[in-house]
Amino acid sequence: MKRAAAFMFFLSIMLADTEAFSIQDARKAYDEVVYKAAAGKTFLVQAEKVKPSDPLLMGYVGAVKMIMAKHYINPWSKLNSFNQGKELLEKALTLQPEVIELVFLRFSIQSNSPTFLQYNQHLSKDKTFLLNNVASLKDKTLKDKIINYLLTSEALSPAEKQKLQA
Q1: pLDDT tops 50 at residue 14
Q2: Cα radius of gyration (the chain)
Q3: CA pair distance 6, 51, nearest whole angstrom
C-alpha cells in the first residue's frame, strides 16, 4: 500500500512538471526573453526538468537559449548558449521541417543574429516558406504574430510586405 501511494505521488509530480511545460509557456518565454532574462532562465530550468522530445517545444527551448545569449556578459557563455540553442532548433527542424512555427523561430533568430555568427543561411528559404504558408495557419493568434513580425522585418521587401497585407 505504501509503495502504491509513493508511486502515485511520484507519478503526480512527473505529470505536474510535464503539464506545466506547455507550448503556451514556450511562446510566452520566447516573447519575454528578449526583454527579461529571468523569463528565459525560468523557462530553461523547467525545460531541463522535462527534457522535451516534442520538436516544437525543443525548437522553442533552442530559440530561448539563443536569445538568452544576449543577456550573458562572458563572450564564451554567449557563444555557448547560442550554439546549444542553434543545435536544438536545427534538430527540431530536421524532425519536422514543414512546421510553420519552427520555420518562424529560425527566421526570427536568423534575421536578428549578428552577421559574425554566420547563422543566416536559411533566411531566404524560410522567408519564402513563411510567405507561402502563413495564411494556412488555423491558430489566429499565432498567424497574427507571424504576420506582424514579417511586416516589421527588414528581411522583407516592400512588395512582399504589401502582398502579405493583402
Answers
A1: no
A2: 18
A3: 23
Q: Give the integer Cα–Cα distance in Å for 76 and 82.
A: 10
Using alpha carbons only, give the angle 128, 27, 115 rounded to the nearest 5 degrees.
Answer: 50
C-alpha grid cell, residue 2: 505504501
Count Cα atoms within 13 angstroms, Cβ side, for 125: 7
At 71-89, the pLDDT tens digits run 999 999 999 999 999 999 9
Nearest by Cα to 70 from 62, 61, 79: 79
Write down the domain spans for the chain: 1-95, 97-166
Nearest to 136 by CA among 103, 94, 89, 87: 103
- Tell me how many helices (H) and strands (E) the chain has: 9, 0
Instruction: Round to whole Å and give the CA distance between 145 and 110.
Output: 17
C-alpha cell at 136: 494556412
Q: Give the span between the Cα atoms of 94 and 50, in whole angstroms.
A: 21
The model carries a pTM of: 0.84
